[in-house]
Structures are given as C-alpha cells and as structure tokens.
Specification:
Layout (H helix, E strand, L loop, with lengths): L4 E4 L3 H10 L1 E6 L5 H12 L3 E10 L3 E3 L2 E3 L3 E9 L12
Amino acid sequence: MYEIIKRPIITEKSAILSEDHKTYVFEVDRKATKDQVKQAVEKAFDVKVLSVKTMVSRGRWLKKYAKFGPPKYYKKAMVRLKDGQTISIFEGA
C-alpha cells in the first residue's frame, strides 16, 4: 500500500484546496487505480476518503550540458476527505 503514494505535492494551489475543500494532492504510482489510491490514503493516514481524481502530468524537458532529456511523466491524485478530517503533513506547509 505504501508504494502507491510517492510524495505529497505542496504548492500554493494545493494549500488553498486543502484549506477550503479538504482536498489533498499526492504524487502516486502511474499504474495505480483510484480504488488503490483511496485504500492507500485511508490506511496510511487513518481518514475517510470521499472521492479521488487522478491525472497524468507531463514534466519539463531537462537540459544537461548540451543535451536535452525527455520529460518525466507522473500521476497526481486529488483526494477529498470527509468534513472534519485532516492530514497532518499538510498542516505546517
């Protein structure tokens, strides 16, 4: 279960989503389904998930020396929680 969630994505937009809509953003494994993400978040943070939205994002082209590298694709999951529940790793950001 813990291999599905890679890291939290903490940006200005995700901070606003977490305060207003109880929605948290994570980078997840590209092969993970919405049900697997839901189960992993519920098990890891002991919360109740209402909905999960996923999207595959394209990274930036990387320039090293005189060569360009291909972009890294990653999958984001926007997880909405029940009212009154929070995830503590986002609170200090």
